[in-house]
Amino acid sequence: MSTTMTTTSPSETHSTNDPRFDSGTQKPMSPTFQPRFDIWEGDDEWILYGDLPGVVCDDLVVTFENRQLSVHGKVGRCFDGENALCSEYRVGDFQRSFTVGEAINSEAISAELRDGVLTLHLPKSDRAKPRRIEVSAT
């Protein structure tokens, strides 16, 4: 049973039919960035916190397929860029993928977006949860 989680870059996760990538070169059609995530592990679940300032739910897609958890979306500039003195927020398309071990209850994965932070809850399956082993005296 695996409880591992790994991340992959967008270029490692797209299919050859993905319209966001050039079919000849397999490179992104437009710049894609990877948002930052923190990963926390508890006894009952893993929680991923993604830094997504300016993203709205309608521009966010979270999928889970074949142990691959993927977050896709886009974020636009929140002001007219012509008069900007400084612009450090990333804008455009973003993608982040995680390969999740088999010890996750995929039916119970949930997500919420609040104040620019995406929180993904990945509950552990019962067989992956820690348990105390009773010791008997002989």
Automatic annotation (TrEMBL):
Pfam family, one: HSP20
Feature: compositional bias, Low complexity: 1-14
Biased composition regions of type Polar residues, renumbered to the chain: 23-33
Region ranges (Disordered): 1-34
Domain of life: Bacteria
Residues annotated as domain SHSP: 28-138
InterPro entries membership: A-crystallin/Hsp20_dom, HSP20-like_chaperone, Small_HSP
PANTHER family the UniProt entry points to: HEAT-SHOCK PROTEIN 20 FAMILY MEMBER
Similarity comment text for this entry: Belongs to the small heat shock protein (HSP20) family.
Protein name per Swiss-Prot or TrEMBL: Spore protein SP21
Organism: Rubripirellula lacrimiformis
